[in-house]
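A quick aside before the break. I want you to see a complete sequence-to-structure record at least once, exactly as it would be stored in a machine-readable document. Don't worry about memorizing anything.
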Amino acid sequence: MAQTLRVLGLFALFLGLLWMGQGAGLIMWPASSFMLEQKIWILWGGVLTLVGASLLVVAQRSR
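That is the input. The structure line, written in tokens, reads:
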């Protein structure tokens, strides 16, 4: 269970950071992405990053 939470947490954390970077215009990949420089994706990426961090905390505590 803890291993699954850890994997999901890391995936969510990195995906959230990617979304934030794309929304802020810092990561312009892929070039055809609809998320590039769309500020709402900074918010959604931040939410997903917090969810991922929370999953990592829960995984650490359930060891």
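Two observations worth writing down. The two ends are 9 Å apart (CA to CA). The chain is about 70% helix and 0% strand. We'll return to this after the break.
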